[in-house]
Amino acid sequence: MAELPELLVLAEQMGTELAGKTLADVEVVQEKCLNLPPAAFRQNLVGCRIDRVYNRGKWIFLDLSQEGHLLLNLGMGADLLYYGPGQAWDDGHRVRFHFDDGSGFTCRFWWFGHAHYCSTPELAGHEPTASLGPLALSDEMTLEWFSSLFGKGRRRVKAMLTDQKRISGIGNVYIQDILFRARLHPTRPVSGLSEADVARLYHATTGTLREAYEKRGLAYEKDFYGVPGGVTMDDFLVGYREGKPCPECGATVAKIRTGSTASFICPVCQPE
Amino acid sequence: MAELPELLVLAEQMGTELAGKTLADVEVVQEKCLNLPPAAFRQNLVGCRIDRVYNRGKWIFLDLSQEGHLLLNLGMGADLLYYGPGQAWDDGHRVRFHFDDGSGFTCRFWWFGHAHYCSTPELAGHEPTASLGPLALSDEMTLEWFSSLFGKGRRRVKAMLTDQKRISGIGNVYIQDILFRARLHPTRPVSGLSEADVARLYHATTGTLREAYEKRGLAYEKDFYGVPGGVTMDDFLVGYREGKPCPECGATVAKIRTGSTASFICPVCQPE
DNA sequence: CGTCCTAACAGCGA
DNA sequence: CTCGCTGTTAGGAC
Question: Among chain A residues 51 through 70, which have CB within 7 angstroms of nucleic chain C?
Answer without folding.
Answer: 57-58
